[in-house]
């Protein structure tokens, strides 16, 4: 940003804020792994998922509640501390209005739901693939690239930038960051994130229904 001021529409302080926010949300949103998906995939491979399907609780809602709880714990334990550290020792651009912080927190909750919905689909692939390692690693790479974790999506040129900003992964980091930095309308961001959350959860429901009709037990 010293060489290209206002790159992506951010000044240097905003860019630094974006970087520290990404570090704060990395574990909470499980963009690079560490969520529930490995455990669910293992239960699918072992056949233990059959027990889960007999529970009175819905499989998707069960894992959603567990993952949101994990995300909130990670946000408090591994997110707030590095973000505060970065704010103390580096020039950052933080809002003074309580309303902006409140809007940002709403986008974080929606980001958690979108992130869960994406990873739930990845986990369900184990019903067909049995070993979903390749799918999981591909999902991590796409998530890192398309969420803004590697670079803010606003710096991507032309059509590429338009495409990645329209994908659901931009709901994870780019959307909350832009609301915090005052670069996006909160209501429009809510609508974008909520639309992807509903669409992905509905798709997950359909895939779950198809998967449970062909439960394959491997080694169990």
How confident is the prediction overall: mean pLDDT? 89
Q: How much strand content do the residues show?
A: under 5%
First-last Cα distance: 55 Å
Q: Could you say which overall geometry the principal axes of the C-alpha atoms support?
A: elongated
**SSE series:** HHHHHHHHHH
Radius of gyration: 18 Å
User: For the report, how would you describe the main beta sheet?
Assistant: none
Count of all domains = 1
Which residues sit in consecutive blocks of at least 5 with pLDDT less than 50? 216-220
Structural class computed from helices and strand pairing: mainly alpha
Short key terms for the protein model shown above:
220 residues, mainly alpha, 10 helices, 0% strand, elongated
Report on this structure.
The protein is 68% helix and 0% strand. It is mainly alpha-helical and 220 residues long. The chain has one domain (10-212).
Characterize this entry briefly.
It is built from ten helices and no strands.
SSE topology:
Elements: H1 12-26, H2 37-46, H3 49-53, H4 59-89, H5 98-124, H6 126-129, H7 133-146, H8 158-166, H9 174-180, H10 186-212
Helix pairs in contact: 1-4, 2-5, 4-5, 5-9, 5-10
């Amino acid at each position: 940003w010293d060489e290209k001021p206002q790159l992506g529409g951010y000044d240097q302080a905003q860019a630094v804020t974006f970087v520290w926010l990404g570090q704060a949300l990395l574990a909470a949103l499980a963009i690079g792994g560490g969520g529930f998906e490995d455990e669910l995939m293992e239960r699918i491979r072992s056949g233990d998922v059959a027990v889960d399907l007999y529970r009175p609780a819905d499989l998707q809602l069960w894992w959603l509640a567990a993952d949101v709880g994990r995300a909130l714990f990670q946000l408090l334990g591994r997110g707030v501390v590095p973000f505060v550290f970065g704010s103390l020792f580096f020039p950052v651009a933080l809002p003074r209005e309580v309303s902006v912080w409140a809007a940002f927190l709403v986008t974080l909750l929606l980001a958690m739901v979108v992130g869960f919905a994406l990873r739930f689909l990845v986990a369900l692939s184990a019903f067909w693939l049995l070993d979903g390692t390749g799918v999981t690693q591909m999902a991590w790479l796409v998530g890192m690239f398309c969420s803004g974790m590697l670079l803010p999506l606003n710096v991507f040129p032309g059509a590429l930038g338009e495409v990645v900003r329209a994908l659901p992964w931009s709901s994870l980091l780019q959307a909350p960051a832009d609301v915090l930095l005052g670069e996006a309308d909160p209501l429009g961001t809510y609508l974008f994130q909520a639309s992807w959350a509903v669409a992905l959860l509905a798709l997950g429901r359909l895939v779950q229904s198809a998967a449970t009709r062909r439960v394959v037990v491997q080694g169990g």
